[in-house]
Amino acid sequence: MAALKTEISPQDNEDENERENDVEEAGGEITPGDESKKKKRKKKKKKTPTEDTERVVEDGKADDVNEVNDATLEGEGEKKKKKRNRKKGGAKVTQTDPPSIPIADLFPDQVFPIGEIQDYRVNQDDRTAKDRFTSEEKRALDRMHNDIYNEVRLAAEAHRQTRQYIQKWIKPGMTMIQICEELENTARKLISENGLKAGLAFPTGCSRNHCAAHYTPNAGDPTVLEYDDVVKIDFGTHINGRIIDCAFTHTFNPKYDKLVEAVRDATNTGIREAGIDVQLCEIGAAIQEVMESYELELDGKTYPIKSIRNLNGHSISPYRIHAGKTVPIVKGGEATVMEENEFYAIETFGSTGRGVVHDDMDCSHYMKNFESSYVPLRLQSSKALLNIINKNFGTLAFCKRWLDRAGATKYQMALKDLCDKGVVDAYPPLCDIKGCYTAQFEHTIMLRPTCKEVVSRGDDY
């Protein structure tokens, strides 16, 4: 049998303390009658706020009673604000320009900004989808994954702040190496690079004009960004393998605006159509319809804008940028459906050329095969290079510049050996016909149980 616990109210304590003080003042016991008299005297001594403010006004210290009340409230508000700041460890930290303060330091509570929330598109009779947001079960599932969502949002905020700085900083006449190194150094600071726990998820793509994807400069590449270039900046950040894959197209000459607009609109269409139980082929058909409703007038000639049919979006899983499902950007893809709590990179590519890409130029992107089993290596140089790859990149993509940074030397033969044996896969630049122009936009989305979160969305795109 449980013991009975007696509660004492705060008012009882206050009355008891008051009685004790009165006893001390009187120097002995106070009778119940004396106690009531004492309380009356105390009540008489109290002044109402109105009496106080009227006295101040009479003294000429304020022209309006409201001024006194406002001043009092402001003073109390400032005290409370200072007290809150002291509890949190001081004033709020703001980002520098150029950005250099880690994102984790900007959010002392370690709760990072939520991306754009979109409701799932539903048919009129689809009660299950309609009830997702109000379902307590689905909201409970959401809460179960909060830690994962928060990690992805941290990576997204690092991506957002990095790209917004680069968009203002980038200028014609800069070398592509200079651009990539500035971007990567900034992102490494903001993400607080820490081995395989936090850092860049893949090399910075800066493909120009007819080259649509997978170009980053190797050491010694003299390529310079020009005013008439259409450049696709595609880079990724990650926390504990939770990857943000996000890209934009940057131009200086406004004559390419329609091409950029078409691809941005197509990407947003793909994001809008995506959702739990949605067939991937339906998304591809919607993207193509929007993309190919645009055309570009360039130097007196009109070009239809085509979806690049052999490029697509993809699912993402921890430490795996291409996790098995593809999101086409033309009609006729697979009928596979998206599922709850999957992560996707929705990306679209538009071209004024043939709308098909092929391998071209020197290879710079590489990635260890995620499903590769043990392969015996005879060359000592191959073993040494594989150790560097495992330690620094794991199954995340890398480039030759990053091998140089990791301390690898004379690795060309070893890298070829690893590729020949299927331990590492090469990803050469992907190009349409020379003379055409290509553009790209991309966002990472989370298919949460209650809603769709475009986690990499920003004010820029």
Structure write-up:
This protein has 461 residues and is α+β, with helices and mostly antiparallel strands. 39% of the residues lie in helices and 20% in strands. It has 14 helices and 18 strands. Strands 1, 8, 9, 10, 11, 17 and 18 form a 7-stranded antiparallel β-sheet that branches. A 3-stranded antiparallel β-sheet has the order 2-4-5. The protein is globular, with a radius of gyration of 32 Å. The relative contact order is 0.13. The model is unreliable at 1-75 and 77-89 (pLDDT under 50).
Keywords for this entry:
461 residues; three-stranded antiparallel sheet; 14 helices; disordered N terminus; 20% strand
Mean pLDDT, to the nearest integer, reads 85
The Cα radius of gyration reads 32 Å
Largest sheet: number of strands, sense, barrel closure: 7 strands, antiparallel
Based on Cα principal axes, name the global outline.
globular
Q: Uncertain segments of ≥5 residues (pLDDT<50)?
A: 1-75, 77-89
Q: First CA to last CA: what distance?
A: 65 Å
Quantity of strands, as a count: 18
Number of contiguous helices: 14
Strand content: 15-25%
* Helix proportion: 25-40%
GO molecular function: initiator methionyl aminopeptidase activity; metal ion binding; metalloaminopeptidase activity
Family: Belongs to the peptidase M24A family. Methionine aminopeptidase eukaryotic type 2 subfamily.
InterPro entries: Creatinase/aminopeptidase-like, Met_Aminopeptidase_Type2, Pept_M24, Pept_M24_MAP, Pept_M24A_MAP2, Pept_M24A_MAP2_BS, WH-like_DNA-bd_sf, WH_DNA-bd_sf
Binding site for substrate: 214, 322
